[in-house]
Design goal:
By secondary structure, this protein is an alpha/beta fold. The chain folds into 4 domains: 149 residues, DNA polymerase, domain 1; 90 residues, 2-Layer Sandwich (Beta Polymerase, domain 2), CATH 3.30.460.10; 73 residues, DNA polymerase, thumb domain (Beta Polymerase, domain 3, 2-Layer Sandwich); 237 residues, Metal-dependent hydrolases (TIM Barrel, Alpha-Beta Barrel). It is 43% helix and 15% strand. Strands 11-12-13-14-15-16-17 form a 7-stranded parallel sheet. The chain has a 5-stranded mixed sheet with strand order 2-4-7-6-5, with helices on both faces. Strand 8 and strand 9 form a beta hairpin. The two termini are 47 Å apart.
Length: 568
């Protein structure tokens, strides 16, 4: 929790410094925040050991700020900046097109501090009068305010799942608990969640409830009962805990996993078979037919087991009746990660350390795909540095056995669909990712054609984060996805499922559409640090929600077979 708090303050200081055009310090604070955020060790311990300056990107000055945060909860400089710019950063920056500089301009010119202020001034047509804004931006802000508000009551899975797992771990360690499971939309790997649902088997529910409500991560007790309690955690999200007997736990887990829509259909199916289904079991009149496990309930209803990720009432019940539920891709099926960034561009970890993590995850290969020249903000590499990295990777590969580093690039797609690195350089790479990083607000025809043009370049193997979305921050590009999928199938271009929990792009519904078009996918993390390689699980969860099987995912193949896919 302290790591997150320190990182959040450092990120916010970077935002304030960007408002003041202090770009050198912006990058320094941003890099330090990212390093703190991804630490696997408690930062308080690092401080006590006197090793804060050993954290990547943390120099003497920022180390002193971190100490001040740990000692007082804030810093004097941070408080001064907050007083100077009394705005709600989280709210305003959730609107697409609004960053620190725009926030400063809106505050300076119109006193806008939050979403309500922004909406009022936009509806009064005052924003378009500001120099550099105009009617188009004003209209865009109004459209995107609605999008931003839509997510105010939900949190990103990547932020909530680790918290749910921590609660589960603590409860499992209690002698009074026999089994603990996370349910709800988290278990379905939905990209955003409203709350945390925890189910427990215990013969001593009162003791479990006493422990649960007294945890140090609890901010407020909303309801406390003998078998169910609800709290609001200090991070702001609500958490429910329910205790059940072992004999009914499967029915409870099915019911509280959802989705609500599938539960309704399951109850209707049960009735059609002369049965009754609820959170306590499957019954024939008063006699319980099943309920101890989910699988026995599905079996009693003559259905295939439906994995939690598919339980959205999108045809999975019909498939289960026909015994046609697919064997979905699993985390252990992934053989390599094809989208990594190191300190050669905007990553925070060396190639060697990234490879160490990949080996721990049991991978056979990875690809380093650094940003290229035109993306200056990401320390994009020019052709000289690309060639130097190629030599460095070759040298590391010489010392590796049973593992291969592929040489790659993440090149930028310009406004005409051209790439920012010459073909002569690209043809020497093992693989090339192409992605859009600028001109994001162009129309559907332009955006679609840019990506198709890039796919038609013989050197482009993968389109990275194809729709460009960032959850709760930026909508998908305006694209004709049917045309994208058709072009990907025709050119043999792989489409990425970006596992960064902020992106999850392609999203679940689009994954299913892509597969139906005959497209092949890859699951990548877009990792900028070693610990972010673990984000692959979010991509796997999303792919499973999109009904993806191993045959749909190219990097479930061993290296030799994967390279054949690239060649084809």
């Amino acid at each position: 929790m302290l790591n997150e708090k320190v990182a959040k303050i450092l990120y916010r200081i970077a935002d304030y410094l960007e408002m003041e055009d202090n770009f050198f310090r912006v990058k320094a604070y941003h890099n330090a925040a990212h390093s703190v955020e991804t630490l696997t060790k408690d930062i308080e311990s690092i401080k006590e050991e006197g090793k804060l300056e050993e954290i990547p990107g943390v120099g003497k000055g920022i180390a002193e700020k971190i100490e001040e945060i740990l000692d007082t909860g804030t810093t004097q400089d941070y408080e001064k900046l907050k007083k100077k710019y009394p705005v709600r950063f989280e709210e305003l920056s959730s609107v697409e097109g609004i960053g620190p500089k725009t926030i400063k301009l809106l505050y300076k010119e119109l006193g806008i501090r939050n979403l309500d202020d922004l909406e009022y001034q936009a509806r009064e047509n005052n924003i378009k009068k500001i120099k550099g804004m105009g009617e188009k931006k004003e209209k865009s802000f109004l459209e995107n305010i609605e999008f931003a508000r839509k997510f105010t009551s939900r949190s990103i899975l990547g932020e909530v799942l680790p918290l749910a797992e921590e609660i589960k771990s603590r409860l499992i360690d209690l002698p009074q608990t026999d089994r603990v499971e996370i349910a709800g939309s988290i278990r379905r790997w939905k990209e955003t969640v409203g709350d945390i649902d925890i189910l427990v088997i215990s013969e001593q529910p009162v003791e479990v409830m006493d422990y649960f409500v007294s945890m140090d991560i609890v901010g407020e007790i909303i309801v406390k009962g003998p078998a169910k309690s609800t709290v609001r955690l200090k991070k702001g999200i609500e958490c429910d805990i329910r205790v059940f007997d072992e004999e009914v736990f499967g029915a409870a887990l099915m019911y509280f996993t959802g989705s609500r829509e599938l539960n309704v259909q399951m109850r209707k199916l049960s009735i059609s078979q002369g049965l009754k289904l609820n959170e306590y079991g499957l019954f024939k009149k008063e006699k319980k037919v099943a309920g101890k496990t989910e699988k026995e309930i599905f079996q009693a209803l003559k259905l295939d087991y439906i994995p939690p990720e598919l339980r959205e009432n999108r045809g999975e019940l019909e498939a289960a009746k026909k015994r046609e539920i697919p064997s979905l891709v699993k985390l252990e099926d992934i053989k390599g990660d094809l989208h990594l960034h190191s300190t050669w561009s905007d990553g925070t970890t060396s190639i060697a350390n990234m490879v160490d993590q990949a080996l721990k995850q049991g991978y056979q290969y990875v690809a380093f795909t650094e940003h290229t020249g035109s993306l200056k903000i990401a320390n994009g590499m020019n052709e000289d540095r690309i060639l130097k990295q190629v030599k460095a990777i070759d040298k590391i590969n010489d010392d590796l056995q049973g593992f291969t580093i592929l040489k790659g690039l993440e090149v930028n797609i310009d406004l005409e669909g051209k790439l920012d690195i010459r073909d002569e350089i690209l043809e020497d790479m093992d693989l090339v990712l192409a992605a859009i990083h600028s001109g994001l607000s162009k129309g559907t025809i332009e955006m679609t054609q840019r990506i198709i043009e890039a796919m038609e370049n013989e050197h482009v193997d993968i389109i990275a984060h194809p729709t460009g979305r960032k959850l709760q921050l930026r909508k998908e590009y305006d694209l004709n996805l049917n045309q994208i999928f058709e072009a990907a199938q025709e050119t043999g271009t792989l489409l990425e499922v970006n596992s960064n929990p902020i992106r999850l792009d392609l999203r679940d519904l689009n994954i299913r559409r892509a597969i139906e078009h005959g497209c092949k996918l890859v699951l990548n993390t877009d990792a900028h640090s070693a610990i972010e390689l673990n984000n692959i699980r979010y991509g796997v969860g999303t792919a499973r929600r999109g009904w993806a099987q191993n045959k749909d995912i190219a990097n479930t193949l061993p290296l030799k077979d994967f390279l054949k896919v690239l060649k084809n």
